[in-house]
Amino acid sequence: MTHAPADAATPVVSAFYDRFPYPGDPLQDGPPPGYNWRWCVDAAYAACTGAIAPMPNGGEPLRILDAGCGTGVSTDYLAHLNPGAEILAVDISPGTLEVARERLRRSGGHEQASVRLENRSLLELEGEVPFDYINSVGVLHHLRQPEAGLKALASLLKPGALLHLFLYADGGRWEIHRTQRALMAMGVGTGAEGLRLGRQLLAELPEYNRLRRHHEQRWAIDCAADANFADMYLHPQETSYNLERLMTFVASADLEFAGFSNPQMWDPARLLQGELLERARAMPALQQWQLVEDLDPDLSHFEFFLAKPPLLRFAWDDDQVLLASKGRRNPCLWGWPGAALLDSDMAPLDLRAEGLALMQALEHAPADTCLGALPLGWPAQEIAAVARVLLDQRVLLLQAGGSAPA
């Protein structure tokens, strides 16, 4: 019996990625480089709830789904950053999965976590045990019916679990969409001929042409790999969103918006100052984001967390609650041990001497030591104050002690 594809676009998208395995990141020996290291599950939960991920019942390993893993770049990070986890990585393209298997083999990812790489659609995962965390980056917008994909992923989440998504945004893809339509109108195709003619188009348009200038200034480096160029300009199936339609999309699966995973991009302070910033800060959060969307036409995507209710959030404004908690260093940092670090976005992060001292004490203390019991010789109020600075810097991650969620 022949089964209909899980999504109407599945056959053509699968064939496209067999021709152009994506992402086109090179394979390498050893752990992956750092730009995506914010994908640690504990760091994601801390960003959304204030505390690290709750441990599964019975001491079972974290269950992670990488839905649409492509050539395994995201799976590789997830394996190295979440040691001991059980990871299911699925993709509809056999060709990309071959690259993913080789990537994990060379990086040692299989030695860090239990990883299954399977040629399956995210729409056909019925029967899988629910997951603690799902990563699906750059996938749903390539389905003919993205809402069906979102509902399928929502059904695979445990209550209180997180889903990390990346979807295209209308505004920053204005030039990309026009280039795509032009290439489609000329019938260049989605194979090697399309790749050749697409590069030729962007090289031969007049130097003053907006499409050429935008590509050269914004995307030329990202598109150096043929697979990346093809994914951007030749993809046969793509949907993009504005903020209003995005929130409608989220609501279609009865999920809770838990925050952007690149929150600095949605902070009005990135664009405004003085009286205008004060006026922006007085707006509700959603209106602030809409203002940023209007003011920054270069925003090309949304990356964000969704949660399956109930999502428990923790506050650390009570010193006793804070001091009773247990902490750990955010593993999504570069440069430790040391005061000059790179944060999870690879931006400089300078620790003060007292912050470094607290983190060093935490590193050397037994795993079940609460913050208030660290051998620092400081007053409790000082420990709490330093800990809050480290929380704001996303250097310190906390596991709640006997406190109640906010």
CATH superfamily of the largest domain, called what? Vaccinia Virus protein VP39
Q: What Rg do the Cα atoms give?
A: 22 Å
User: What would you call the structural class?
Assistant: alpha/beta
If you consult CATH, what is the topology of the largest domain?
Rossmann fold
Beta-strand fraction estimate: 15-25%
Main sheet: which strands, in order across?
A: 3-2-1-4-5-7-6
Number of helical segments with 4 or more residues: 16
Shape: globular
> How much helicity do the residues have?
25-40%
Which segments are poorly predicted (pLDDT under 50) over 5 or more consecutive residues? 402-406
Strand-and-helix sequence, N→C?
A: HHEHEHHEEHEHHHHHEHHEHEEEHHE
Structurally, how many domains make up the residues?
A: 3
Report on the biggest sheet. 7 strands, mixed
Average residue-wise pLDDT: 93
How many extended strands? 11
What is the C-level CATH assignment of the largest domain? Alpha Beta
